[in-house]
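Teaching note: in complex prediction, the entire set of molecules is handled at once rather than each chain in isolation. The prompt given to students was simply: 'Predict the structure of this complex.' The entities are:
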Amino acid sequence: MKANILVAATLAAFLSACQGFQAVDISMAANVGDNISVTPQVAWSKLNYGAGSATIWTIDGLGLNEMRFLTGIKPGDPLMNVAGVERKELGTFQAMMLPDEVMELVGSTLGKLRYRQIRTAGLRPAPFGMATGFRFDLNFTNEDGLQFKGVALFAERGGKLDLMLFIAPGEYYFDHYAPVVERVFTSVQLKDAAPTKPAS
Amino acid sequence: MLAGMPAVALGADSAPPPDYKPLANTTEGGLWLEVEQVEKDLQQSPLLVRDEALNAYVKKVVCNLAGPQCGSIRVYLVDAPVFNAACYPNGMMVVYTGLLLRTENEAQLAFVLGHELTHYLKRHSLSAFEKRRNTATALAFLSLGVAGVGIGTGVNMSGTMDLAQVIAIGALISYSRDQEREADAGGFEIAVSKGYDPRQAAAIWSHLEEEEAANPHRSKPIQFFADHPTNKERLATMGKRGEEMEKQSHAEALAGEEYRAAILPLRTQWLDEELGRGEFDESLVVLRRLIAAQPDATEFHYFLGEAYRRRNAKGDLENALNAYNRALAGTGAPVAAYKGLGLTALKSGKKDMAREAFQEYLAHAPDARDKEIIQFYLTSVGGQQ
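The expected output is the structure of the full assembly:
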């Protein structure tokens, strides 16, 4: 009986999640939170989740390609909520974090999602709209043994963290959509003039 | 994997003879079929540690403990930074690298592996499974595994699985506390009979107790202990047994040097993954213990600095600076210690120290993949490459 209940709950959660998907309007810039907009480039579906402004876009489906927009993250907040993990167990964004520290936070958060063999590399400055941002590359494996690649772009503006994270299986999906992701990253527009904090 | 071996019916309390295979039309036979599929999937997983020497070493330890059952046990080392091991009903034994990082010598490893072997020899999984099963739903659950768990927040849409399925099937055959006590006792007897120092059994649980207690954020016990007797009970029992054994004539094999040599090629990667968990309170306990055993290992001091820097609690930056400097004062320190020193100095407002450290880093690693960000930091402190 217990297993039946679990199966039913899983299916209910899945159906509930599916109902939350909406098409992203490809004809105009999309607001992805905290006064940030990007141009979709291709047809994405989006899913809003959690209490904050976290949004996931996907082209072929979750697990195949996911662009996470984690924006307006305040000091003391985790990057995202993780099912089955208490909030106090998650690393949190802190004011005055160095870019390396943000990269490490992304890595440990993916670990809480039970991804393994997480490797981050290639951290470097990169434009985030008109702000100074940073980007880095990721490699990791999920518990199914499927290997993923990822790329992240982030900036700290007005004391808050804005992060875009694209992940997809290394076989086919990541490389296939990497040019699209680059165009999305390049299309970032900031609607306010929140100052960018230089590392010092 | 056991093709050609006779299928037999065996009493529930009997230890499986070498090359045992249950009848296919029994509950145990069905359970084996499921686990065998999991094992086939695991064999293809990139999470498997394929280092031949390390696999041979752990297999040797297992065979020494298992004696005539050696051929029935297949060892799989899984790259995951958690303290865990399990032996499944068909003889599939899974050992996680987080365990190998934490056991200090072969004796400690032997007590854990002896514990898992006892579960296998006593066929605990069968009785545990029978207690839990509502056969149709249990196996249906196995087929679904953990697909879909996490939808909506920490989205991880896993489909088919191997390690995830290992965990799922592990949950179905999780043992009772009495079975865990029996495995503790059995593992202790097996390891001591092979000459391992009996005090090392209590040492493991003592170390894990310390690790758990150090982390105020931990909401669940270390995975290995999910259904186990409490650490305190286990520590008391093993400590008492160890003291009793002390009074008797016995060997005191530790095999510490052999153990350290076996794990050395992969140790840096495991330490990196350990810090990647983001559980710095626990990692600091592990690192201090490693340093106590090998005070001159510069790598440990580097990672100690990393743990302090990343935790960044009160006083940690100063501790990190000391640890990086201690690493760099020795021989063979990781070049990354210069970077860690630079980042910590930058956080501490010590611009001159940061500039010097970053310049040293680039001088030692001119082609580093992160040289662009190092140059960015250098610019921020008024330095040049």
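Point out the following to students. The longest strand of chain B covers residues 74-78. Residues 7-246 of chain B form one domain.
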